Amino acid sequence: MFILFYYFYNQINFIPVSKIPIKTLAYAGAPERLHNDAIDILKLKYGLEAEISSDRPRILYFLTGGSEAEATRLLEQKRFQLLLASGKTNALASAMEVKAYSNQHGFRNVLLCLDDDKDKQLFEKYISVFSALDRLQGKRLGLIGEVSAWLVASSIDANILKDKLDIELVRIPWEDAGDYRKFGADKDFMECYHAGRQYNIEDAGRVNSMLKKVIEDHDLDAITVECFSLVQENSVTACLGLSFLNDLGIPAGCEGDLCSITALMIAKELTGELPWMANVVGINANEVLFAHCTAPTSMLSEYHINTHFETGKGTAVHGRIKARDVSVFRLNNTLDKVFYAHGEVVDGIYEKNACRTQLHVEFDEGIIRELKNNPLGNHHLVLPGNHMEVLSILANILG
Q: What pairing do the DSSP bridges indicate for beta strands 287-292 and 276-283?
């Protein structure tokens, strides 16, 4: 068994991002040099460092024929694995047999052939997604309050979060979060939202400072907030505070939606970006209208401050998304299904009876049909650009 260290370029230098367990497979009695040479080739061609480790491999690397029986003993029902082979020394033949066995017995895996240029590129993408998911291990996700009552499909059991992604859910009652009125507004926050705008955002700044203190006190990596109780009791919203946290690179979601905040955390590790969490507020034959009040300002070409749509109170971000095309995705509440789609941003009529920041996106007819007939929930995550390849790999791995 070997563990692979994957390196990727991040505009500055190459950095190690994960350890990926791999098992090299060959006929019984094959020389150790065969296994070592295979690992050296992976290092040379793909930037992968290897060291001997335990079992439970993520990748089964077929080197020769006669390795089928050993491979089947390493297959796992509840865990996605990658089957890797080349056409040399009957390695692909062995992998094909194991892939057929996997299909017959319900094991989830994908077979890649390293003789194919497209599969080589896909292999690199799989390593990148494996690494992104591994970076979530040990992360702490804070839930202030409860999941909002109307999000009947968007609560994730804490045990599922732990088992699937090794994310720890930290529950924080509102009474333990502190009184926002005792906090001061940060200068950076006030400069971001205040200058030249008619709304007094001092209270929104205090809420932002309170949230940052909660994150610090509980050592959180991400946060989601049951925000409607805050606005109903105090006429102040968390919209700007959550927007600001996302601009700072801290995944922050509203309504206590655990599916969305988990997707935000995954998106950050996959792409280095934080998406916009949005409602689906309109669907026609080829177009979807997304809207919400917490858009990160980094995604906007222009914005101003408005009131929160549902309550008419507090403050919210009313902006124009600057992307020309977007990737939209959503997780289910058992983290084994992913909806994902790519669409073009189109002009549309601003809907007064919807949340403040809005986006019209044109999709293929099949996507529209899937979204209407088999939705995983209301809130979807909107990422600028085309991320379909990594999202499809994510879907394979999770479900």
A: antiparallel
End-to-end CA distance of the chain: give it in Å, rounded: 25
Half-sphere exposure of 10 (CA within 13 A, CB side): 14
What is the length of the chain? 399
Beta bridge partners of 247: none
Is residue 398 within 8 A of residue 126, CB to CB? The reply is: no
pLDDT tens for each residue of 256-291: 999 999 999 999 999 999 999 999 999 999 999 999
Write the pLDDT tens digit of every residue in 298-354: 999 999 888 777 777 778 889 999 999 999 999 999 999 999 999 999 998 788 877
Single out the residue of 294, 299, 297 nearest to residue 279, CA to CA.
294
What is the side-by-side strand order in the sheet with 140-144?
168-172, 140-144, 222-225, 252-254
Q: How far apart are CA 9 and CA 125, in angstroms?
A: 13
Nearest Cα residue to 204 out of 302, 288, 307, 115: 307
Q: What is the 3-state secondary structure (H, E, C) of 348-367?
A: CCCCCCCCCEEEEEECCHHH
